[in-house]
From TrEMBL:
The chain crosses the membrane at residues 6-23, 96-114. Pfam families: DUF4345. The lineage of its organism: Bacteria, Pseudomonadati, Pseudomonadota, Alphaproteobacteria, Rhodobacterales. InterPro entries: DUF4345. The keyword Transmembrane helix applies. Keywords: Membrane, Transmembrane, Transmembrane helix. This is DUF4345 domain-containing protein. It comes from Yoonia litorea.
Length: 115
C-alpha cells in the first residue's frame, strides 16, 4: 500500500508540473484556447497545475492514510467533474481517457486508505 500511495502522489506531482510550468502545452492537450487575456494561463497553472503538485507534496509530507485518502478524494472529484462533462457536454475519446486516469488514481487511493 505504501508504494501505491507514493505512486499516486508522484502521479499528482508529475501531471501537475505540466499544468503549472507548461500551461500552453496543457491547454493544447485539453483543447483549450487562451484568448487575449492571460487568465486562462493563470487558471491552468493554478487548477490543473500547482494544485495537483501541492496535493501530492502534501500527501507525501504528511504521509498518513488520511492524507493519501484525501488525495484520492481530490482525484475522484476531478473524475466526477469529467463524468458530468461526458453526460452533459458530449462524449469524446480524450474525455474518457482523462476520466479513466482520474478514477484509476482516485478510487484506489480512497479505498486503500480508508479500509
Amino acid at each position: 500500500m505504501d508504494i501505491l500511495n507514493i505512486l499516486f502522489a508522484l502521479a499528482s506531482i508529475g501531471l501537475g508540473v505540466f499544468g503549472w510550468l507548461a500551461p500552453k502545452y496543457t491547454m493544447g492537450q485539453l483543447d483549450m484556447s487562451g484568448g487575449d487575456s492571460t487568465m486562462a494561463l493563470s487558471e491552468v497553472r493554478a487548477s490543473a497545475g500547482a494544485l495537483f503538485v501541492g496535493m501530492g507534496v502534501g500527501a507525501l509530507l504528511i504521509g498518513t492514510p488520511t492524507a493519501y485518502a484525501m488525495l484520492g478524494f481530490c482525484w475522484c472529484g476531478a473524475a466526477v467533474g469529467r463524468a458530468t462533462s461526458l453526460v452533459i457536454d458530449g462524449r469524446f475519446k480524450k474525455k474518457w481517457i482523462y476520466f479513466i486516469v482520474e478514477a484509476a488514481v482516485g478510487v484506489p487511493a480512497v479505498f486503500l486508505n480508508l479500509a
